[in-house]
Specification:
It contains 9 helices and no strands. By secondary structure, it is mostly helical.
């Protein structure tokens, strides 16, 4: 069991938590949640979080197997993932839209909130990219912590908007964008060094 999950390291948990929470971006997505509720979509925080954690953990455990199926080494995926995360960080910092999600129908708690907003391609890429550097055990704990924060934010969406204000949420999004940009550079250049 310990061989599979690896050593659980507090610094790995903290750094991967900050990275994942920045990618999932529960604070930055508050306006989208409110917009869905204004359209009459009933948001169930429990359903969003349960669906998100199932999707994320499934991808964490099966992602490496999928890479092996296609004959791709984790270092190469980390470089490609770092580039995608780099573009996501630019979206957060520059207020531009690079990725188009399209129009999705379905339950508001599952689609589009759980997937693809919170447990979507960005989170998948981030998880698989950092498995090259972090243990699975540490990543599992950081995923659970992210989901706890997500649950708290979804429960307190209207309170956060009222008391923090749009300006504070905007600043938080920019701050996380810079962190994500730095981690993307680390992923790309660190794994390029390993490859070469």
């Amino acid at each position: 069991m310990r061989e599979f999950f690896g050593e659980i390291d507090i610094w790995q948990i903290l750094s991967s938590f900050v990275f994942l929470i920045a990618i999932i971006d529960p604070f930055g997505n508050i306006p989208i949640t409110i917009a869905l509720e204004d359209k009459g979509v009933k948001i169930h925080p429990e359903r969003v979080c349960i669906a998100s954690i199932i999707i994320l953990l499934a991808f964490l455990f099966a992602g490496e197997w999928i890479l092996k199926l296609f004959g791709v080494q984790i270092e190469y995926f980390a470089v490609a993932g770092g580039f995608v995360i780099f573009l996501m960080a630019l979206e957060m910092i520059l207020d531009v839209t690079i990725f188009q999600s399209g129009n999705l129908d379905g339950s508001g708690s599952i689609v589009p909130l759980a997937f693809p907003m919170y447990a979507g391609p960005g989170a998948f890429t981030a998880l698989l990219s950092i498995t090259a550097e972090y243990s699975v055990g540490s990543l599992c704990i950081s995923v659970f912590l992210c989901i706890l924060v997500l649950y708290a934010v979804l429960l307190g969406t209207h309170w956060l908007t009222k008391y923090l204000g749009q300006t504070s949420l905007y600043i938080i999004r920019k701050f996380f964008g810079i962190i994500v940009l730095a981690i993307a550079c680390k992923l790309m250049f660190g794994n390029l060094a390993v490859i070469f």
